[in-house]
Amino acid sequence: MKAFEMSHHARVARLVRGALLTGASMAAMFAASAAQAQDSEAATDATTAETQADETTDSIVVTGSRIKSPTLTSPSPLQAVTAQDIERTGRVDIQEVLQTNPAFGLPGQSRNTSNYGAVSAGLSTVNLRNLGANRTLVLIDGRRVVAGVPGSAQVDLSMIPASFIERVDVLTGGASAVYGSDAVAGVVNFIYRKNFEGVQVNAQSGISEYGDDEQYSLNLTTGTNFADGRGNVIAYAGWSKQGAVASVDRSRSVSDQTSVGALQRSNNRTDANLTAAQNLFKAQRNLSSVVPASTFNAGTGNYIVDSTGTVRPFVGATDGFDRTPFDNISVPIERRNFAARANYAVSEAFGIFAEGSYANTTSKGLLEPSPLVPTGSLGLFRQGNGRFNIEQRVTNPANAAQSQIVRNPLVPTALYNVATDTNGDGFRDVAVSRRLSEFGQRFAIFDRTTLRMVVGAEGKLGSSWNWDVAYNWGKTTADSQLTGLINQDRAVQALDVIQDVYDVNANGNTAEAVCASAEARAQGCVPWNVYGAGKASAASIAWLQVASTRNAVQTLEVASANLSGSLFDLPAGAVQVALGAEHRREASSEVFDPLSIAARNAYVQQTNTSGSFTVKELYGELVVPLIHNTPFFDNLTLRGAARMSDYSTVGTFYAYNAGIEWSPVPDIRFRGVYAHAVRAPNIGELFAAPAISISSVNDPCAGVTATSTGTTSTTCRADPGVAANIAANGVFTLSQSDLQGVGGLNVSNPDIQQESARTWTLGAVINPVSIYALRNLTLTVDYYNIKLDDAIARTSRDFILQQCYLNNDPDFCALVSRRTVGSGPYSAGSIQLVNSQLINSGGASAEGIDTTLSYRLPVAGGTASFAASWSHLLRQGSTPLQGAAFDRSDGEINTPKDRASASIGYDTERFGITFNGQYIGASYLDDQYRARFLLADGSLPDRKYFRVDSAFYADMQLRFNVAKAFEFFAGVNNLLNTQPPPVITGLTGSVTGTETAAGTYDPIGRRYYSGVRLKF
How do strand 136-140 and strand 186-192 relate by DSSP bridges? Predict the structure, then answer.
């Protein structure tokens, strides 16, 4: 690490200089050919979706409606991210571009938050309003996209080619009546390029301040018209690569650590909790007690066989294992995208179109060598104290009357001497925990491919009616494997070792170690020497080592027909209507290897899941202009939509909305929409098989003593394991493994029902077109209120523990099991299992205000532009169960009350510069977490001790037009090298390996990039 720091600045200087020279050399290479090239696409200024709709002369479809109109506006808050906006961020991942918009919450999956998963690395999903990724509907050109996350509706944005995008419409608010299920929080609609003619090439490279996070992107878009302009074909090919960022290459995460305050906290009412609160954001090195040399529970102590072969008591501070050198902050991702689209006008009233895409994403997650523990839901032994015999009586296979007691010859004498009989069978036993370093680092290897095809026809009926029919098909295959795991069934056999006193293998050696079981020996069992680091033989590793595998397939089929047009004219304009029908089928399956299914590979349990559903839907939409061009009523329009959905799983339900738009003058428009949105449960929520996973919890019993009072203390001490822990330590004491190694059975629910939401949006759009100097200014202010009933949710393990130990609720206590005795890295009384099932919960809600502002004006021979977006949360949270208290999350980490983004730019024919900024307001640790720091008088420490400061990120890009159709650009993201807050392990919101809330804050640091764009 020191060597890295010493050469750090020199390396960065060379790398940045290399990146810039690469861009410059590419500029020189293309300049000659670009000098005479003509740009076939008109440059577009960054505007809001509102002005884009108003300034278009052809009939269009605005996201949120299916009615074509040259003047149609959006009744719901709608923001647009243009191709130009995307280019000026310098980001190769479209998810990272969208995440700067304050309407988006914590991403469901990203390269910074999924670096520790065995099935999720490389995924990119979005989460509007922090209501959950399953409640954000992602579309391409208004049509559904096959999911990238099996069993869900979550689209993997990695499959969307960024340079093929014309714009991205972000519609916030319930849109189920128009688009169907999953649009509860809103819609993200990717609008692809159409009728493109020419060639466009983009090439870019970049690197971080620290010499990692290498970024490369290369793509080509080409298109041509044919048949005298009646047809167009466009094709795209792209490749991008993002490098890994290792945890040890950032000072905040250079070693395993835990919050000092989290360790100091007591469950007693004590003023010592004030000190604990003051130390929450201070880190203390906290190494894992699962080490390569093994730790042994023998007799009444924990022992290790050190590098000299000496058996001595285990000392965690010096003998512990640091996992950080094996972890990543961000996983490496490589993407390959191909897309094509063709349309042909057979006549003025009839046209056909087809589009297809191929996307492949590969990634490799890194994890520390696998831990093997003796007990627990994923331990070597499921029952008892996890101990196995190191001596046993052996019978001579040639003479049943002859037997003797023999010991495992691999066990050091000193360990044998401290071992006792704890199982009551007369033989000494031990329990082992071991870090499987000899199996190598675990690599989680992912390969995900998405295919998509849409074919259809469209046309006109008469002068005012439009129709289209389409068939939409998509398939995602996701294959992954995790290396470095162990076959626990074989491990049990390979630990059961005896001296071959009767020469059972007939090789003449009666002193060697052999597996005790004759059946195991017949299968090839090799004794496993776990008594010290590096003692295991290559043959035993080969016998034990396995990899988990997973093969997943998700398919989507949609047949749709739509008709829209004008019914009749009113004095204020035509009454417009849209009608349509859809038939959709979704199917998903995940198949795992047998050991993963049985939870016998020392990782987690992963079980096969398969299911499908069909849905038949009818919808209608109506727009009625009531008043137009009248004093105080330049425009008054009513609109509404309704959808009936008939699911093969949950039956029939309805979604609807109603809205109003009023413009007293052309410069101001008021809008409001009420929507009743519905989301049906997805395949995973209905059909997923029960599976055991490992998670971190905050144990309410931590700090309980023999004399502490209150419901929590009484309920905790009633458990014999907790009582034994207190008797041994004076206070209930837990290790890092106790808090981070809690298993739980995750259960789906075939009886779960749909959830529904009531959404209000009220707002105003100000575009003072009557004032010449302000004609390009647009201001929007919108209030939103989303109330979700019967929300499909999994009861959190922390909530279950609180209900059990704070309220002594027997129903919740039945879901919790604790260890009666200590075993391996786990303490007596520590939580072994907390089971959780999907339910229709008490609901969730979000309420806030969104504001956007954009303005552009000519300045000194160029164009200056400004755009900003601010979101303020008034209230957000959830009710875990019907009748339970509402748990607020607004203002907490990952759900800040205030988020904003802004962009300011200036462009001339030869030069351009853009500054982008992002603001994340100050946030606090979860209020329920704070409630555990009771002081002696029953009050709580000041909230300031649970606060993380606001953060501001600045990006900059410079552009140079080398020739008319050729541009060279260079930029810096996180220009100020803003560091993330210390949301350390042990605090709510922390992401493993990053030591911060990596889904909200940038965990990487300053990054440089440069590239070229060629258009002809």
Answer: parallel
